[in-house]
């Protein structure tokens, strides 16, 4: 069979590679981002209840209406921002499917999509498989991954179809300020640029900072899709339920792709999550829950050879190992897994031209016991 790959530069995602290596070597797995403790039994009970009370057939294409209402209420309550549950919110198979379908619905061959690197790894292939060109903006570890708005200005052209942003940011654990969002708003004013704002970590922001959702800025809201993931918020990444919200005219186009991509997603989980979200503390308590884990992890490794700036959001902490070795980050991450029994994610895989800042990402969505064991290992390196 002869064919030309549409994605010649894509291999197996680093999350699969590192998790498999961790399993083979029985290493503590702080690589792929997922909790190693159960999600709340109240939630699993509500999903079971939904399964036993008639929610086993197709959900509406846009999602279970109770869930869309719960999402709309959350935006109203948290951001004083209104999204019409029937026209402006769609439930998706995780944020990944939302991101893919947003890009597919709008990006044509040779359109340009600006992405900030290090970038979560599903963005670029989704652009390229649709014939678009990614225009990377490499953020600097030394500047704590702050965007340079003059550089962003210089990358915008008549071909720019979309700008993809992600705060709180995976993998760096940094967040964008209100000023950053205002800059983006100003730059996109009077353009037809669509903003895809990946906000899957919106409820994991530390030290009293406020999440700067795109919906808080009128000029951004009218051109933005926001993507979110219940997997991150309710500790069940395996369920793959998320959603996107955006203005009606954009959402209509999104659903043209979504309906022929998955049509709809697991119905009982949607109903269970809708009922669970009646109590807003189910997501409002998350900042504190993860801040405790971040603080525990950092206090335990404070005397180690790793250097760090505390994560501002997400459940990831980046550690700089330049005082330990000058090996490249992929080799070092692999060696830590095989020889020391701790798995992490090298950041270079998310960077332009595999730029290597000698930093690794560690996931602290783990039991305190696991974090203690992980720290014992890190302190010996
Ligand atoms: N965006 C970012 C920044 C992520 O970290 C992830 C996954 N952790 C996703 C999107 C995908 O989310 P989901 O698992 O809901 O598809
Ligand atoms: N988002 C998770 C992470 O960053 C991984 C998701 C995946 O494995 N595709 O670790």
Structure description:
This protein is of the alpha/beta class. Helix content is 39%, strand content 14%. The protein is built from 15 helices and twelve strands. It has a seven-stranded mixed beta sheet with strand order 2-8-7-6-5-3-4, sandwiched between helices. It has a three-stranded antiparallel beta sheet with strand order 9-12-11. Strands 1-10 form a two-stranded parallel ribbon. Helix 7 (178-188) links the parallel strand 5 and strand 6 (194-198).
- How many H/I helices? 15
Mean model confidence by pLDDT: 97
Counting structural domains, the number is: 2
* Beta fraction: 5-15%
Structural category is alpha/beta
N-to-C order of helices and strands: HEHHEHEHEHEHEHEHEHHHHEHEEEH
Quick one: biggest sheet? Answer: 7 strands, mixed
CATH architecture field of the largest domain: 3-Layer(aba) Sandwich
CATH level-4 homologous superfamily of the largest domain: Type I PLP-dependent aspartate aminotransferase-like (Major domain)
Helicity, as a percent range: 25-40%
Q: If you compute it from the alpha carbons, what radius of gyration comes out, rounded to the nearest whole angstrom? A: 20 Å
| Strand order in the sheet with the most strands | 2-8-7-6-5-3-4
Contiguous low-pLDDT stretches (5 residues minimum) are: none
Number of strands: 12
CATH class of the largest domain: Alpha Beta
Bound molecules: 4'-deoxy-4'-aminopyridoxal-5'-phosphate, glutamine
CATH topology of the largest domain: Aspartate Aminotransferase, domain 2
Q: Describe the global form.
A: globular
Distance between the termini: 49 Å
